[in-house]
Automatic annotation (TrEMBL):
Protein name: DNA oxidative demethylase AlkB
Keywords carried by this UniProt record: Dioxygenase, Iron, Metal-binding, Oxidoreductase
Naturally occurring in which organism (per UniProt): Tahibacter harae
Residue ranges of domain Fe2OG dioxygenase in the record: 103-203
Enzyme Commission designation: 1.14.11.33
Cofactor: Fe(2+)
Keyword Iron: yes
Length: 203
């Protein structure tokens, strides 16, 4: 069912479940062309989350900052194309949440192993904040932190499970958010992993 989290934010429980198997096969192909890697933060830390990308633009981080790149910095080659099934799912989920015509040009694929976490941050490397963001959770359960417009605002802890899809836009677009350290509760299909797809209009 749908859970409204704010004026522009909706959690669609299990929305991606019918497509989960196809998504995992597509992720295996993306991973073969552009392997998961741990990027450096501008502050010199190594991210505990490993990532890769597909689509015209990919989110990257290094000592110079966070940004989008048309090429994989590890190889200099273009990121793998966004599988049509990915774009279709993101467009349909956005429409179900009230955002018609969402056409993502970037899909960040995050991989969490037990202990990996994502500290509280805002997504602000995109050109246009008018487009929503669509996020698809696969595999192990995560405790998502849903904050406010300021880092110091109180956070709500929200469980995200295999197949859950979140859509964020409008007034909720710049909320702080993060992911608590993952507990090892192996998933029947994915084992001790969590994969998150984040669809954005970045360019
Ligand atoms: C809430 N990834 O990669 S996106 C990220 O589970 C990121 O890997 C999360 O945050 C993950 O940047 C899931 C969820 C998300 C994205 C944008 C938001 C939540 C948001 C913008 C405003 C509020
Ligand atoms: Fe984020």
């Amino acid at each position: 069912q749908e859970q409204r989290l704010g004026p522009g934010a909706v959690l669609l429980h299990g929305y991606a479940l019918p497509r989960a198997c196809a998504l995992m096969h597509a992720i295996a192909r993306i991973e073969a062309a552009a392997p998961f890697r741990h990027m450096q933060t501008p502050g010199g830390f190594t991210m505990s989350v490993a990532l890769t990308n597909c689509g015209a633009l990919g989110w990257i981080s290094d000592r110079r900052g966070y940004r989008y790149s048309a090429v994989d910095p590890a190889t200099g080659a273009a990121w793998p194309a966004m599988p049509p099934a990915f774009a279709q799912l993101a467009t349909a989920a956005a429409a179900a949440a009230g955002y018609d015509g969402f056409e993502p040009d970037a899909c960040l694929v995050n991989r969490y192993l037990p202990g990996a976490r994502l500290s509280l941050h805002q997504d602000r490397n995109e050109r246009d904040y008018a487009a929503p963001i669509v996020s698809v959770s696969l595999g192990m359960r995560a405790r998502f932190l849903f904050g406010g417009p300021a880092r110091s605002d109180p956070t709500l802890k929200l469980p995200l499970r295999h197949g859950d899809v979140m859509v964020w836009g409008g007034a909720d677009r710049l909320r702080y958010h993060g992911v608590m350290p993952l507990q090892d509760e192996p998933h029947p299909l994915l084992g001790s992993r969590r994969i998150n797809l984040t669809f954005r209009k970045a360019g």
